[in-house]
């Protein structure tokens, strides 16, 4: 069954109900930044976000706009542009609930859901403080070991929605995401996947041996909409680079609630944000 192709990202954002559990990729992946701005315009509330495995611009934007109630992630950061100001402010104010995770743990939980199993084991967490704050992660003895060999069991994580941005979509509804295979894991694990894409191409990408390894099958895509430069101000593979000046401006404005409000008025609320000419 092919995904529903919608006329614009506003209609796509309208499909995310209040309180939904939403997975978002990091800034160095194919981040659906335009879709995040559309969610702000929609006024979604009480969202529960999962950073796969960390959050950045899009997540900080949603938090600052007051859309987020809960968050599970390994970190939220703007990288070389500094701390994520809205995330930091919300944590200090206690306005969001945060569950600490690790990058391997996030991926492992999604992989469990992808494979249809209730949990998966993971090493590397034993001895860390994070276990004290995650009662849902259980330590057991390895049943196949001859001696003591503790291992952590992580419950499967199936988000209500995975939000992604793709470089290409084809007429069959498949999406091409290149090497970013964590997006496929997100789509496989989620109950629904909403996607934006840069360009619609003819034919079926799965029939091209060179392109097929980078494709997410239409089977896992619920709905999609075209959004040219939909990752902006972030980079998208080799199609366009990061808008460093804009991210620096965002980081500066978002340091205060007043500055962030000006950012929303200028780049989000009035009309879909576009890169500078």
Describe the structure in your own words.
This protein is α/β, with parallel strands linked by helices. It has a domain at 4-101 and 157-242: Glutaconate Coenzyme A-transferase (3-Layer(aba) Sandwich). Helix content is 27%, strand content 23%. It contains eight helices and 13 strands. The chain has helices spanning 9-13, 33-42, 57-64, 85-93, 103-115, 182-189, 244-253, 257-269; strands at residues 4-6, 21-24, 47-51, 68-73, 97-100, 119-122, 138-141, 150-155, 161-170, 175-176, 192-201, 215-216, 223-226. Strands 1, 2, 3, 4, 5, 9, 10, 11, 12 and 13 form a ten-stranded mixed beta sheet that branches. A three-stranded antiparallel beta sheet has the order 6-8-7, with helices on one face. Helix 5 (103-115) crosses helix 6. It is globular, with a radius of gyration of 19 Å. Residues 273-277 have low confidence and may be disordered.
């Amino acid at each position: 069954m092919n995904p529903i192709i919608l006329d614009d990202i506003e209609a796509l954002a309208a499909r995310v109900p209040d309180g939904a559990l939403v997975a978002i990729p990091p800034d160095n992946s194919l981040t659906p930044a335009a879709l995040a701005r559309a969610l702000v315009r929609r006024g979604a509330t009480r969202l529960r976000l999962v950073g796969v495995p960390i959050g950045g611009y899009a997540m900080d934007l949603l938090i600052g706009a007051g859309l987020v109630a809960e968050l599970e992630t390994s970190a939220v950061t703007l990288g070389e542009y500094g701390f994520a100001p809205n995330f930091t402010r919300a944590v200090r104010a206690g306005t969001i609930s945060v569950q600490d995770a690790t990058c391997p743990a996030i991926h492992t939980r999604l992989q469990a859901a992808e494979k249809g199993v209730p949990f998966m084991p993971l090493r590397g967490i034993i001895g860390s403080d994070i276990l004290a704050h995650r009662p849902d992660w259980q330590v057991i003895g390895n049943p196949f070991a001859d001696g003591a060999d503790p291992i952590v069991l992580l419950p499967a994580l199936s988000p209500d929605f995975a939000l992604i941005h793709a470089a290409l979509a084809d007429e069959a509804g498949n999406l091409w995401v290149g090497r970013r295979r964590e997006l496929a894991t997100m789509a496989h694990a989620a109950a629904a996947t909403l996607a934006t894409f840069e360009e619609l191409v003819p034919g079926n990408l799965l029939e091209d041996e060179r392109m097929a390894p980078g494709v997410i099958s239409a089977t896992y895509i619920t709905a999609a909409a075209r959004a040219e430069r939909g990752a902006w101000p972030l980079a998208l593979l080799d199609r366009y680079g990061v808008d460093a000046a804009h991210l620096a401006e965002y980081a500066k404005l978002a340091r205060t609630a007043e500055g962030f409000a000006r950012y929303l008025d200028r780049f989000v609320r009035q009309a879909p944000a576009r890169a500078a000419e």
